[in-house]
Amino acid sequence: MIQYLTIPLVKSSAGVDGLTFNVNLITSVVAGANNTFTIYSPDESYTFTTTGTRSKEAVAAINAAILNGGKPVNAVADFASVNLTIPNLPTISV
The whole model's pTM is what? Predict the structure, then answer.
């Protein structure tokens, strides 16, 4: 199983191309409203906003990357295959 998961972002105003998470610290990934999903860890949650109403597809792509990552230490969620992008950094809640 992979150790790290990168969530790709369209180049944000902060100059970030993606955020990388240690999969051992991810407790769940949940689709929210039509265009949001949240990654939960023990101490924080990260809510991402997608383009369009693609939150379920985002969660499916994340789960596929975690489960099928296989050999690489870092897997990247394949959002291009489900025609979705994340234009901004997530909202972080502690």
Answer: 0.85
